[in-house]
Design goal:
Layout (H helix, E strand, L loop, with lengths): L2 E5 L3 H13 L4 E6 L11 H5 L14 H7 L1 E5 L1 E7 L2 E6 L5 E5 L2 E4 L3 E3 L12 E2 L4 H10 L5 E5 L3 H12 L3 E6 L11 H13 L2 E5 L3 E5 L6 E4 L2 E4 L2 E4 L3 E3 L2 H5 L22 E3 L6 E2 L6 E2 L4 H15 L13 E5 L2 E7 L2 H6 L4 E9 L10 E9 L5 E8 L4 H12 L4 H4 L16 H14 L1
Parallel strand pairs: 1-2, 1-7, 2-3, 7-18, 9-16, 10-11, 10-16, 11-12
Antiparallel strand pairs: 4-5, 5-6, 8-17, 13-14, 14-15, 19-20, 21-22, 22-25, 23-24, 24-25
């Protein structure tokens, strides 16, 4: 009987376990996790804080009954320490117990940890991160004693938490080192739409500013931002995450620039050892360069491949475009591929088009605005990237753009899209097609 051991029980770990069982039903699948919780959605944490979701328990996506029915053995509260030969050594988090597990193949799915920048006084009380249910519980317990939450970082989690804290009636400030919000997925002109909306919702934005110090001897009293003092009584560090590669390094797995290096089968430099999720570098489907998208969708797909192959399969993971969608206050925001700024940094000549349109027929009640920005390669005419900001209907358009990029679609292909129309659902003119028509005219100049 083949034994597959998986280290980590986030999205990648769970998917790897289920995929291994599907590939080889007779295999013995064992999962080791540091956390005491079953797999849950980390992306849902801000929405529990904001009150959209009732409790953190609602975020748990699997049950013991499902695991037992699938024949998956789970060891919670244990940390993977080392591998010698085909034996995994693990210790309990409380340090009271050690175990050894033999395996035929191993999947590393250790995920990522919050990145904490070198800010003076960052370890005092009421300075939080939000990566786990335990983090969320700490924040929730503190809310009754907090008036002003300062958020360091204007990425997805930072902005989602800005809305969540606002819903709780708190004063909110967001400080971002870059000169715009969502700097990794939006060009400046598209970010401006979100910034204006956040200001309308009374969020104090400090962009292009550095947090120099957290004030307070025991608990937060304020921040020093580029020499200016901002009064606040809690701080959320939301400056992104970094791949958790401690275990991988311990067992001699080769790393890339920032995370575990794998081949297309998700196998690492050590034969029989696979890796998936946030701890892994991913090939960008446009540039072919490694990057770390840190997305649940990517973790799911990689876990599927790693688990199947660890159980004897031969699936391939081709790479990712880093497609993402989120909602902040009044707008949904979507991205796939490259921004124009990223494309130019890659030395690509681009043709850019942007159109502001409607989510449904203009004359239909409650229609909303949607802005679509497309980036094309000026030489090959291929679509390189898409950014969308709209009141609704963003996700499936991003999925469409992602498929178009993956299939090598050109501007000439997009203007021919056979789209649907009904006044309460969609306008007769699809904004992606309209933006492509604008781009085509620029190609002909």
């Amino acid at each position: 009987m083949r034994r597959v051991v998986i280290v980590g029980f986030g999205t990648a770990g769970l998917r790897a376990a289920l995929s291994a069982k599907a590939q080889n039903p007779g295999s013995n699948v064992i999962v080791v996790s540091e956390e005491q919780y079953l797999t849950y959605s980390r992306c849902g944490l801000p929405f529990v804080i904001g009150g959209d979701i009732k409790s953190f328990e609602n975020l748990i996506v699997v049950s013991n009954a499902i695991l037992q029915k699938s024949g998956i053995d789970l060891i919670l509260g244990f940390r993977a320490i080392d591998v010698i030969g085909n034996t995994l050594y693990i210790d309990s988090i409380d340090g009271k117990e050690s175990r050894q597990i033999n395996f035929d193949s191993l999947v590393i799915a250790t995920g990522s940890k919050p990145f904490i920048p070198p800010i003076k006084n960052v370890n005092i009380n009421n300075v939080f991160t939000l990566r786990s249910i335990d983090d969320g519980i700490k924040i929730m317990k503190s809310l009754n004693n907090i008036r002003h939450f300062a958020i360091v970082g204007a990425g997805a989690i930072g902005l989602e938490c800005a809305e969540a804290f606002s819903k709780r009636g708190l004063t909110v400030s967001v400080i971002e080192l870059m000169p715009k919000v969502l700097p990794n997925i939006l060009d400046h002109d598209m970010a401006l739409l979100i910034q204006e909306d956040m200001v309308k919702h009374n969020v104090n934005l400090k962009l292009g500013k550095r947090v120099e110090e957290i004030l307070g001897s025991n608990s937060v009293k304020g921040l020093v931002v580029n020499g200016e003092i901002i009064d606040c009584d809690a701080v959320l560090i939301a400056t992104g995450v970094k791949a958790d590669v401690v275990f991988a390094k311990n067992i001699g797995v080769e790393l890339g620039s920032v995370a575990i290096k794998t081949d297309d089968f998700m196998e690492t430099s050590k034969t029989g050892v696979y890796a998936a999720g946030d701890c892994v570098e991913t090939k960008n489907l446009i540039t072919s360069k490694p990057f770390t998208p840190y997305l649940g969708t990517v973790a799911y797909r990689q876990g599927n491949v790693a688990g199947a192959n660890a159980a004897g399969g031969s699936m391939v993971f081709p790479g990712s475009l880093g497609s993402i969608v989120l909602r902040i206050f009044d707008y949904e925001i979507g991205f796939t591929g490259l921004t124009n700024e990223q494309a130019e940094k890659e030395g690509l000549n681009t043709i850019v088009s942007k159109v502001k349109w409607y989510t449904k027929a203009e004359y239909f009640p409650h229609h909303g605005d949607i802005t679509v920005k497309l980036i094309f390669d000026a030489n090959s005419r291929k679509l390189l990237g898409c950014q969308i900001v709209g009141t609704s209907d963003v996700a499936q358009r991003i999925n469409l753009a992602s498929m178009a990029i993956s299939m090598g679609a050109k501007v000439d292909d997009l203007i021919k899209l056979d789209t649907c129309y009904s006044p309460p659902v969609a306008d007769v003119i699809e904004p992606i097609v309209k933006a492509s028509e604008i781009a085509l005219k620029r190609f002909k100049k």
